Model the fold of this input.
Amino acid sequence: MDDGDLIRAVPLLPCRFDSGSVEAFPVWQALADSHRIVGVDVEVPTMLPAILRQLLLPITMHALGSPPSRREWGQRFERGRFTTAEIEALATYLAEHADRFDVLHPVHPFGQVADLRTKKGETKGSALLVATAPSGNNVPLFATRTEADVLRLPLDAAVRWMLHAQCWDTAAIKTGVVGDLNAEKTGKTSGNPTGPLGQLGVVMPVGRTLYETLLLNSPIGVQKRLGPPHWAKDPLGPQWEVRAPEGLLDLWTWQARRIRLLPERTDDGVVVERVVLSAGDRFNVGVPVWETHTAWRKDKPDRRTGATPLRPLRHTAGRAAWRGLDALLALEKENGAAQTSELIDQIAGLDDEGVIDAGYPLRVETFGIVYGNQSAVIEELIHDVMPLPVASLRGAGPAYELVVDAATQAEQLVNAINLLSADLRRAVGADPIPWNKGMRPGEQLLAALDPLVRRLLAGVSVDADDEDKLARGREAWELMAFDAVHRCAAPLFALPVAAFGGRSEKSGSKERHYKLGLAANMFHSAVNNTLRRAAALRKRSN
Done:
């Protein structure tokens, strides 16, 4: 058996089972057992969408086709696993493309350019592929590891990081290679964008098993716009292009970089210490509006055409995914400032037709990367996972109203406690804490509210159509949020006597007074107006 065969030899996918055990499988075994696999344990969270988009999803979609209808999708989902006929179709497909999935192939190694080289034959350490390793512009000043340290990657890890680089690589200047006409004069290429996922706030629906996750990420009725994955086309050379994706599978397997792994055989197996990485293909008009794994922000309509431009909605570091519920629940049929992803919108349609149960434990994972100076360095990885009640995707009804109200109330409470802090600080002659410096009390409150919101979302997922339980859940949420905001606010009132008298500030002809009593009254009024049910219950119990 070929050491580089991703289908049956390379243990590429560390698969997790219900028991908690993890076993590394080649691609074929992971697909065959996808109904038993509950997760894929990868080095960094952002590697999961890379593996799904660059490998597993295109294989299943190209081999089995897009589900032609919601009914067909529902039948696949109800079965919960690949049928015998589908397994045979996958086996036939992988056999037909077997040589293109050989990562060590001498002519067309998977995801690489076989003879990629610089004029002087320079190579870089494998850390260049690893987002968390010091390399080039990513070497911290006081890091314990430097770019000169050897990073020896087993072949399976090197391939995972190669897929990650195709999706998330930085926008730094790339080495010029032989055959790249754009780099002939200078020996390098500039103007490289980040990898395609680096331009998005990635949103992926996740199921109970790998099989369900693959199906939840399979668009329905898109057979005509699938296009080919990169392994179904002629092998790439060093020359890159500016072009539009040929279809969905071309977009998912987009080769944003030209890469060559330089493997070595050792007593411990095949390892990779050196690589060549250069510029790859670029989108001609930005991210396609049919990108499946992002929510969108709607810009102002074009005055000439009347069309509403869409821009990918990026995630913010440190911001919980549930704080973006307004965008995740913004269905395409609605006319708001945001629009959810195609796949989340699709799940809403499946719920409308009863194809997926309202109590299904759907989760949504969000991924992103914060890039630093000119997007040439990686500063932070973004990842979150949260329950997303299927019933909340209906755009109306008790479940939808509850989750949207809870997210809105949390933001209003954060604003109330930050305003309280600012007014109390002014009352003693201090400036408010700047929004971008220091720790404001709103951040502490969000930390307290976060597990409460997630608990609420999980509860709504289970009891989506039970209005009595939803009402009790709303009441419990408000009471716990009421206690949390007052608990976080209590230390702010530990002020000197001068705060009672306060002070005044003039702005033009207007004068505003700041003192403890006024600030407290405004705070309590804001909280009571936000959490009306909890305020009424607390009042009756006192």
Remarks:
- The mean pLDDT is 90.
- The longest helix spans residues 398-427.
- Residues 257 and 280 are 4 Å apart (CA to CA).
